[in-house]
Specification:
Blueprint: H1 7-30, H2 37-44, H3 48-54, H4 58-62, H5 66-78, H6 86-101, H7 107-115, H8 117-140, H9 148-167, H10 171-188
Helix pairs in contact: 1-2, 5-6, 5-8, 6-9, 6-10, 7-8, 8-9, 9-10
C-alpha cells in the first residue's frame, strides 16, 4: 500500500484503518453476525456515514486489503520491468499476498470467514473481481499475444494459487508448485 503524502490523505487513511481495526476486534470478540455497523461506528468514534464513506458494506470491513490486493495484482503486470516475464512477476505478488494473509494472528480471521456463509460468498465474489481485473491487465500487456480466454484462465489460476497457498501447511512451497503449473499452462497458450 502506498503511504498517503498529504495531511488530509494521512488522516483519511488513519480513520479508515481505525474503523477496520475496530470492526475486526469486535467481530473476533463477539462474532461477525453479533456486531452491527452502528456498533462498529460508535466504537471507532465515527459517524455511520463516515464508516460507509470508507467501506461499502459490513463484509468489506473484514476484507479491508481488498483494493490493495486487486491493485497489486494489476501492478505486477503493468509495472514490471521491460521484458520481465509475466509469470514470475505474478508469483512474487502472490507470495506477498499469502505472507500477509498467513501472518501471526490471521488464523482467527480466516476461521471467522470460513464459518460465515456471507463472508465466504463475499470472498468468492471478490476473488472473481480480482481475476477479471488481472485478466484485463494481462490482455492489455503489449508483450502478451494470448487470447482473452487464455488471459482469463491464467488470471483465475493465479487467484486460486493465492487461495490454495494461503490454506497450505507450507504456503511458500505450495505457491511455487502451483506457479510451475501456471508457467506451463501459460507457455502452452503462447505462439507456436
Amino acid at each position: 500500500m502506498t503511504v498517503p503524502t498529504g495531511r488530509r490523505e494521512r488522516k483519511k487513511a488513519a480513520t479508515r484503518q481505525k474503523i477496520a481495526d475496530t470492526a475486526l476486534r469486535l467481530f473476533l470478540e463477539r462474532g461477525y453476525d453479533a456486531v452491527g455497523i452502528r456498533e462498529v461506528a460508535a466504537e471507532a468514534d465515527v459517524a455511520v456515514t463516515t464508516l460507509f464513506s470508507h467501506f461499502a458494506s459490513k463484509e468489506a470491513l473484514v476484507f479491508e486489503q481488498d483494493a490493495n490486493f486487486e491493485q497489486g495484482l494489476a501492478r505486477a503486470v503493468t509495472d514490471r520491468a521491460p521484458h520481465e516475464p509475466l509469470i514470475p512477476a505474478l508469483c512474487r505478488e502472490v507470495h506477498a499476498m499469502v505472507r500477509h494473509c498467513t501472518a501471526d494472528g490471521a488464523a482467527p480471521i480466516w476461521r471467522m470467514i470460513d464459518e460465515s456463509p456471507v463472508l465466504r460468498e463475499y470472498e468468492d465474489s471478490m476473488r472473481l473481481r480480482h481475476a477479471e481485473t488481472l485478466a484485463a491487465a494481462i490482455a492489455a500487456d503489449p508483450e502478451s499475444s494470448r487470447s482473452a480466454t487464455a488471459c482469463r484462465t491464467i488470471a483465475r489460476f493465479v487467484l486460486d494459487a493465492y487461495s490454495l497457498g494461503r490454506e497450505a501447511a507450507d504456503p511458500e512451497a505450495a505457491v511455487n508448485e502451483i506457479f510451475r503449473m501456471i508457467e506451463a499452462a501459460w507457455e502452452a497458450t503462447g505462439p507456436a
